[in-house]
Amino acid sequence: MRRLLCLGDSLTFGYGVAAQDRWLTLLSRAGRVQCQNEGLCGDTTAGMLQRLKAMELTAYDAFFLMGGSNDILLDIRREQTQAHMTDMIARLQTQGKPVYVGIPPLTLPESAAYGWQAADAVTGHNDRLTAYRQWLLNECKQQRLCVFDFYAALWDAQKANRTSSLYVDGVHPSPAGYALMAQTARTVLIRSHFLTE
Predict the structure, then answer these.
(1) Can you give the CATH number for the domain in which 39 is found?
(2) Is residue 197 part of a domain?
(3) Per the structure, how many domains does the chain have?
(4) Contact 164, 107 (CB under 8 A)
(5) Binning pLDDT at 50, 70 and 90, where does residue 164 land?
(6) Residue 120 and residue 158: Cα distance in Å, rounded?
(7) Helix 122-143 crosses helix 78-93 at what angle (to 10 degrees)?
(8) What is the pTM assigned to this prediction?
(9) Mind listing the pLDDT tens digit for each residue in 51-98?
Protein backbone atom coordinates (compact mmCIF):
# COMPACT_ATOMS: atom_id res chain seq x y z
CA MET A 1 0.00 0.00 0.00
CA ARG A 2 1.54 3.30 -1.10
CA ARG A 3 1.28 6.35 1.17
CA LEU A 4 0.30 9.78 -0.13
CA LEU A 5 0.57 12.88 2.08
CA CYS A 6 -2.11 15.42 1.10
CA LEU A 7 -1.62 18.98 2.29
CA GLY A 8 -4.25 21.63 1.68
CA ASP A 9 -7.32 23.52 2.88
CA SER A 10 -11.02 22.61 3.06
CA LEU A 11 -11.03 21.38 -0.55
CA THR A 12 -8.43 18.79 0.39
CA PHE A 13 -10.12 18.02 3.72
CA GLY A 14 -13.46 17.40 2.02
CA TYR A 15 -15.59 20.02 3.75
CA GLY A 16 -19.36 19.93 3.38
CA VAL A 17 -19.99 16.19 3.06
CA ALA A 18 -19.94 13.08 5.23
CA ALA A 19 -16.52 11.54 5.86
CA GLN A 20 -17.20 8.63 3.52
CA ASP A 21 -17.90 11.03 0.64
CA ARG A 22 -14.66 13.03 0.86
CA TRP A 23 -12.52 12.64 -2.24
CA LEU A 24 -9.46 11.39 -0.36
CA THR A 25 -11.59 8.75 1.35
CA LEU A 26 -12.90 7.66 -2.04
CA LEU A 27 -9.39 7.63 -3.51
CA SER A 28 -8.10 5.47 -0.65
CA ARG A 29 -11.11 3.16 -0.94
CA ALA A 30 -10.34 2.57 -4.62
CA GLY A 31 -7.27 0.70 -3.46
CA ARG A 32 -3.47 0.66 -3.46
CA VAL A 33 -3.06 4.11 -1.87
CA GLN A 34 -3.36 5.31 1.71
CA CYS A 35 -4.09 9.04 1.79
CA GLN A 36 -2.98 11.02 4.84
CA ASN A 37 -5.48 13.89 4.88
CA GLU A 38 -3.76 17.06 6.08
CA GLY A 39 -6.42 19.38 4.72
CA LEU A 40 -7.25 22.16 7.20
CA CYS A 41 -10.42 24.18 6.68
CA GLY A 42 -9.75 27.88 6.23
CA ASP A 43 -6.01 27.48 5.79
CA THR A 44 -4.01 29.79 3.54
CA THR A 45 -0.80 28.96 1.70
CA ALA A 46 1.10 30.77 4.48
CA GLY A 47 -0.45 28.47 7.07
CA MET A 48 0.17 25.42 4.91
CA LEU A 49 3.84 26.34 4.59
CA GLN A 50 4.22 26.63 8.37
CA ARG A 51 2.53 23.25 8.87
CA LEU A 52 4.72 21.65 6.21
CA LYS A 53 7.88 22.85 7.94
CA ALA A 54 6.86 20.85 11.03
CA MET A 55 5.97 17.63 9.20
CA GLU A 56 8.01 14.43 9.03
CA LEU A 57 8.04 13.51 5.35
CA THR A 58 10.20 10.42 5.09
CA ALA A 59 7.39 7.90 5.66
CA TYR A 60 5.47 8.88 2.50
CA ASP A 61 5.84 7.62 -1.06
CA ALA A 62 4.49 10.78 -2.71
CA PHE A 63 2.98 14.17 -1.91
CA PHE A 64 -0.09 16.12 -2.97
CA LEU A 65 -0.34 19.88 -2.49
CA MET A 66 -3.29 22.21 -3.14
CA GLY A 67 -3.87 25.69 -1.79
CA GLY A 68 -4.67 29.24 -2.83
CA SER A 69 -8.47 29.35 -2.76
CA ASN A 70 -8.60 31.02 0.64
CA ASP A 71 -5.79 33.38 -0.33
CA ILE A 72 -7.91 34.56 -3.25
CA LEU A 73 -11.14 34.79 -1.24
CA LEU A 74 -9.24 36.83 1.37
CA ASP A 75 -7.66 39.04 -1.32
CA ILE A 76 -4.11 38.11 -0.33
CA ARG A 77 -1.54 39.34 -2.83
CA ARG A 78 -0.93 36.94 -5.70
CA GLU A 79 2.84 37.22 -5.31
CA GLN A 80 2.63 35.91 -1.74
CA THR A 81 0.51 32.93 -2.73
CA GLN A 82 2.84 32.02 -5.56
CA ALA A 83 5.92 32.37 -3.36
CA HIS A 84 4.41 30.07 -0.72
CA MET A 85 3.46 27.45 -3.30
CA THR A 86 6.92 27.59 -4.88
CA ASP A 87 8.53 27.17 -1.46
CA MET A 88 6.32 24.20 -0.56
CA ILE A 89 6.95 22.49 -3.88
CA ALA A 90 10.71 22.91 -3.44
CA ARG A 91 10.60 21.52 0.10
CA LEU A 92 8.65 18.45 -1.03
CA GLN A 93 10.97 17.89 -3.98
CA THR A 94 13.94 17.51 -1.62
CA GLN A 95 12.48 14.11 -0.68
CA GLY A 96 13.14 12.79 -4.19
CA LYS A 97 9.59 11.44 -4.49
CA PRO A 98 6.66 12.34 -6.77
CA VAL A 99 4.94 15.66 -6.05
CA TYR A 100 1.42 16.26 -7.35
CA VAL A 101 -0.20 19.70 -7.41
CA GLY A 102 -3.95 20.29 -7.29
CA ILE A 103 -5.67 23.15 -9.11
CA PRO A 104 -8.66 24.42 -7.12
CA PRO A 105 -12.01 24.82 -8.87
CA LEU A 106 -13.94 27.98 -9.64
CA THR A 107 -16.62 29.28 -7.29
CA LEU A 108 -20.29 29.78 -8.18
CA PRO A 109 -22.49 32.86 -7.60
CA GLU A 110 -24.51 31.07 -4.89
CA SER A 111 -21.39 31.07 -2.70
CA ALA A 112 -22.35 34.63 -1.73
CA ALA A 113 -25.57 33.37 -0.13
CA TYR A 114 -23.48 31.11 2.12
CA GLY A 115 -21.21 33.97 3.16
CA TRP A 116 -18.05 32.77 1.47
CA GLN A 117 -17.65 35.99 -0.52
CA ALA A 118 -19.54 39.12 -1.49
CA ALA A 119 -21.83 38.81 -4.50
CA ASP A 120 -19.95 41.54 -6.35
CA ALA A 121 -16.62 39.77 -5.72
CA VAL A 122 -17.41 36.43 -7.38
CA THR A 123 -16.37 37.42 -10.90
CA GLY A 124 -13.14 39.04 -9.75
CA HIS A 125 -12.19 36.10 -7.57
CA ASN A 126 -12.91 33.66 -10.39
CA ASP A 127 -10.74 35.74 -12.71
CA ARG A 128 -7.95 35.40 -10.15
CA LEU A 129 -8.57 31.65 -9.84
CA THR A 130 -8.30 31.35 -13.62
CA ALA A 131 -5.02 33.28 -13.69
CA TYR A 132 -3.77 31.22 -10.74
CA ARG A 133 -4.61 28.02 -12.60
CA GLN A 134 -2.53 29.15 -15.56
CA TRP A 135 0.38 30.04 -13.30
CA LEU A 136 0.18 26.59 -11.63
CA LEU A 137 0.07 24.84 -15.02
CA ASN A 138 3.14 26.77 -16.18
CA GLU A 139 5.01 26.21 -12.91
CA CYS A 140 4.27 22.48 -12.92
CA LYS A 141 5.33 22.18 -16.56
CA GLN A 142 8.65 23.81 -15.74
CA GLN A 143 9.13 21.58 -12.69
CA ARG A 144 7.86 18.48 -14.55
CA LEU A 145 5.13 17.88 -11.99
CA CYS A 146 1.77 16.24 -12.60
CA VAL A 147 -1.38 18.20 -11.82
CA PHE A 148 -4.83 17.24 -10.60
CA ASP A 149 -6.80 19.80 -12.59
CA PHE A 150 -9.95 19.96 -10.48
CA TYR A 151 -10.72 23.36 -12.00
CA ALA A 152 -11.19 21.86 -15.47
CA ALA A 153 -12.85 18.65 -14.25
CA LEU A 154 -15.58 20.34 -12.23
CA TRP A 155 -16.16 23.22 -14.62
CA ASP A 156 -16.48 20.96 -17.66
CA ALA A 157 -18.88 18.65 -15.81
CA GLN A 158 -20.88 21.57 -14.43
CA LYS A 159 -21.34 23.02 -17.91
CA ALA A 160 -22.40 19.64 -19.28
CA ASN A 161 -25.07 19.07 -16.61
CA ARG A 162 -26.58 22.31 -15.33
CA THR A 163 -29.50 20.59 -13.57
CA SER A 164 -27.39 18.87 -10.93
CA SER A 165 -24.84 21.02 -9.13
CA LEU A 166 -21.47 19.58 -8.24
CA TYR A 167 -21.23 22.04 -5.32
CA VAL A 168 -22.96 22.15 -1.93
CA ASP A 169 -22.42 25.88 -1.33
CA GLY A 170 -20.84 27.38 -4.43
CA VAL A 171 -17.30 26.77 -3.13
CA HIS A 172 -17.12 23.20 -1.82
CA PRO A 173 -18.06 20.17 -3.93
CA SER A 174 -21.06 17.94 -3.34
CA PRO A 175 -20.64 14.16 -3.00
CA ALA A 176 -20.82 13.97 -6.81
CA GLY A 177 -18.19 16.70 -7.09
CA TYR A 178 -15.83 14.97 -4.70
CA ALA A 179 -16.37 11.69 -6.54
CA LEU A 180 -15.25 13.45 -9.72
CA MET A 181 -12.20 14.80 -7.91
CA ALA A 182 -11.29 11.29 -6.74
CA GLN A 183 -11.68 9.96 -10.27
CA THR A 184 -9.54 12.79 -11.67
CA ALA A 185 -6.81 12.16 -9.10
CA ARG A 186 -6.78 8.40 -9.63
CA THR A 187 -6.49 8.84 -13.40
CA VAL A 188 -3.41 11.05 -12.96
CA LEU A 189 -1.84 8.70 -10.42
CA ILE A 190 -2.25 5.79 -12.84
CA ARG A 191 -0.97 7.74 -15.85
CA SER A 192 2.10 8.79 -13.89
CA HIS A 193 2.68 5.15 -12.86
CA PHE A 194 2.35 5.87 -9.14
CA LEU A 195 -0.61 3.47 -9.14
CA THR A 196 -1.56 0.57 -11.36
CA GLU A 197 -5.03 -0.24 -12.68
Answers:
(1) 3.40.50.1110
(2) no
(3) 1
(4) no
(5) low
(6) 22
(7) 30
(8) 0.96
(9) 999 999 999 999 999 999 999 999 999 999 999 999 999 999 999 999
